[in-house]
Amino acid sequence: MQTVLLVIDLLLGGVLRRIRILLPVVVFLIFLAFDASALGLGRGIAFLPDLAFATVLFWMIRHPSIMPIPLVFLIGFWTDAMNGSHMGLSIIAYLTVFYMISSFRADVEGSGFMFHWGAAVTGIAAYFTIQWTFYSAYELAVTAPFQNMIRAGMTALVYPLVYLLNNALRSFLWRGALQLEDR
Are 163 and 113 in contact (CB under 8 A)? Predict the structure, then answer.
């Protein structure tokens, strides 16, 4: 992965490092474009993980200064628009997870991958629970939660791969020197 990014960086003449603050959003948009709902496959495919949310969750946990509240709001809006879901569902879910993750981010910071994964699983469960709750409230009937449960489980299982990809991207672009906030 490092080699591929290095070749791309050399070909682009160091452009990646100049726009590196935008790359988490670009990775999110790439994953969102390949989401089942955005491809027109419908929301009936429950076994596909939500890689776009997992990417945003990684950056929320690792460096919330890269994912500020206005950007999280826009990402939630964009997710609703791309998936064709009710406007505001993802916005509320993303913002709730952002505040929840920021409340225990200090405990996760500096700890190992397992603590990071535990925080991510908590955020994933909260995200899909909030989406299911608000969708049921919108429909004025309790909808079956199985699709959201399966999708949350698949997202939690695939999260280590998203973690590896984003961590490789972070270490390549910042070379371990990402200190955007006080410790």
Answer: yes
The residues, any chain, with a CB within 8 Å of residue 17's CB and separated by 6 or more, are 9, 173
Confidence of residue 14 (pLDDT cuts 50, 70, 90): low
**Residue 159 · residue 121 · CB < 8 Å:** yes
Q: How many residues does the chain have?
A: 183
Interhelix angle 51-62/113-139, rounded to 10 degrees, is 130
pTM of the model: 0.82
Amino acid at 26: V
Contact 100, 120 (CB under 8 A): no
Do residues 23 and 171 touch, judged by C-beta distance below 8 A?
no
Q: Find tokens 């500020």 and name the residue.
A: 68
Of all helices (H) and strands (E), which one includes residue 170? helix 146-174
